[in-house]
Design brief:
Layout: H1 2-83, E1 84-85, H2 97-115, E2 127-130, E3 135-139, E4 148-153, E5 158-163, E6 167-172, E7 175-180, E8 184-186, H3 189-196, E9 201-205, E10 209-213, E11 222-227, E12 231-233, E13 236-237, E14 241-246, E15 249-254, E16 258-262, E17 268-269, H4 275-302, H5 306-318, E18 330-331, E19 335-336, H6 338-348, H7 357-360, E20 365-367, E21 377-382, E22 385-394, E23 397-402, E24 411-416, E25 422-427
Antiparallel strand pairs: 1-10, 2-5, 2-8, 3-4, 4-17, 5-6, 6-7, 9-12, 9-16, 10-11, 13-14, 14-15, 18-19, 20-25, 21-22, 21-25, 22-23, 23-24
């Protein structure tokens, strides 16, 4: 019995010793683990500190890069200003070689696109062109025995009004009539046809205002300014420039700021001009000549509602948009120049002004360009003298007779008043 008790006591003692030993071992390991964590934390703090320092060290190059980017942006703006005004472009970052390569690609692609005329699926939608060697007759009715109202030549284009099985009704310029389907091409086939037959090209301005240079250089003299969406037949073409005729002068436009497309013209009417149209110019001239006696009474009758009077003048002027330009012309329907246009429009309402733009600049009352109202006249200089006049129509726009596109040989059109820098404003309507 004593042996059993002693054996049990010994076993219990050994168990207690084992437990105490394990506990001591665990405490020691925990202490070591905690010490390890503390060491790791210290190491992490040291790494974080060095990493922070690295960030601070990198901050200086970033700062330099920012300055470089700023200089690049300034250079871009300077280059841009050599070609255009009133146009904002996003600066191109050139901080790395990869970025330089990336930014260079769009320019290369743009030049490649400009080599061939651009078009989309909608460019020729609803259009028709003649597929003939010389001329296709446009007839008044759907019959070969019907009256010929126009000539649809190779290089012309028209809008499809109604397509039938054998005949299609088109409108091209001022001519509306029927042509046989057998001699027409449609849609995108027009582009292919133009390419196969080496049609001339035109440049369509993409910038708000683009400078026309005397030579192929940004240092060359600026001949004039042209506005967005104006188009000009290309006379010659190089890698970076197109030679066009704008405002009577041959000059160069930077390719980066124009879209190149095929140049089409409108059909010509074969219908003889009616007497009312033939005498319109004479009647307008007579009104202008006699207006000195009528001016005072006309102004008195309309002075009570000058706003309405101005809008009437503008609405009347806009009726002739699309009609052709003719230097020295006096007909609002058959050909007129810039000063003839303003004289005839104002003359219709009884206001008498001079015939040339430089003389008109001395008529009426000089006002600030910033205070123009619809119906006022805006003047532009070239070579130090006034050579062009327009009529302000509101919303920053003018209507004028121009000898440049978008009409084949210029015409009466609407442009931004800032397409060139106006030098003077004159008020004729009180």
């Amino acid at each position: 019995m004593k042996r059993i008790i002693a054996k049990g006591t010994m076993t219990a003692g050994l168990s207690l010793a084992f437990i105490l030993g394990v506990s001591t071992f665990a405490d020691a390991k925990a202490s070591q683990y905690q010490t390890g964590l503390a060491g790791s934390a210290a190491a992490m703090e040291e790494y974080t500190g060095s990493d922070s320092s690295a960030s601070q060290k990198k901050a200086a190059p970033n700062s330099k890069t920012t300055k470089t980017t700023a200089r690049t942006t300034a250079a871009e703006k300077t280059t841009q200003a050599k070609h255009i005004t009133e146009v904002k472009k996003q600066p191109v970052s050139t901080t790395t070689a990869a970025q330089k390569t990336t930014s260079a690609k769009p320019k290369t692609e743009a030049k490649k696109q400009n080599e061939e005329p651009e078009y989309t699926s909608s460019t020729y939608q609803g259009k028709a062109a003649p597929d003939v060697r010389s001329v296709l007759n446009i007839r008044k009715k759907k019959s070969t025995s019907s009256l010929v109202v126009g000539k649809f030549k190779k290089g012309n284009i028209g809008t499809v009004l109604k397509k039938g099985r054998e005949w299609t009704k088109i409108r091209s310029g001022k001519v509306t009539g029927y042509v046989k389907n057998d001699y027409l091409i449609w849609g995108n086939n027009i582009h292919k046809y133009a390419k196969e037959h080496n049609f001339p090209k035109k440049a369509v301005v993409k910038a708000d205002t683009l400078k026309v240079r005397q030579k192929q250089s940004t240092k060359a003299k600026v001949l004039t300014l042209v506005s967005k969406n104006d188009s000009y037949k290309i006379l010659k073409e190089s890698a970076d420039w197109v030679n066009v005729k704008a405002d009577g002068d041959k000059g160069y436009l930077a390719k980066d700021y124009v879209s190149i497309r095929y140049y089409f013209t409108n059909a010509k009417s074969t219908v003889k001009k009616s007497k009312p149209k033939a005498t319109e110019s004479t009647q307008s001239t007579e009104r202008s000549t006699q207006s000195s006696r009528e001016t005072s009474s006309s102004q008195d009758s309309e002075s009570s509602s000058s706003g309405t009077s101005r809008q009437k003048v503008v609405n009347y002027a806009l009726k002739f948009v699309g009609n052709k330009y003719r230097y020295g012309g006096n007909s609002l329907t058959n050909g007129i120049d810039c000063s003839g246009f303003t004289q005839q429009v104002l003359g219709h309402f009884g206001y008498s002004i001079s015939r040339t733009s430089s003389s008109q600049a001395n008529d009426g009352r000089t006002i600030s360009v910033s205070n123009v109202r619809p119906g006022d006249l805006l003047f532009y200089k070239r070579g130090g003298r006034i050579n062009h006049v327009t009529m302000y129509i509101g919303n920053g726009q003018v209507v004028h007779a121009s000898n440049s596109a978008p009409y084949p040989r210029g015409g009466i059109k609407v442009s931004s008043m800032g397409y060139r820098t106006p030098c003077k404003a004159v008020r004729i309507i009180n």
